Amino acid sequence: MKNIIKLFDEHVLFWENPKIIKIISSFLVLLFISCAVCSFLVYHEVISIGRFKTIFKHRFFAIEVVFTVLLIFELLSLIFVLPKSVSRSVSKQFDLLSMIFLRDAFKEFSHLEKIFSWSDSSETILKILVYSFGSLIIFTIMGFTRKISSQTQFSEIYKNQYQFVRIKKLVALFLLCVFYIIGFIDFVTLVQTDVFLHSFDTFYTVLIFTDIVIVLVSLCFTLNYYRVFRYSAFVLSTILIRISLSLEPYYNVALAVTTALFVLILTIVYNYCQKDCTHKELTA
Question: What are 11-25's pLDDT values in tens digits?
Answer without folding.
Answer: 888 888 899 999 999
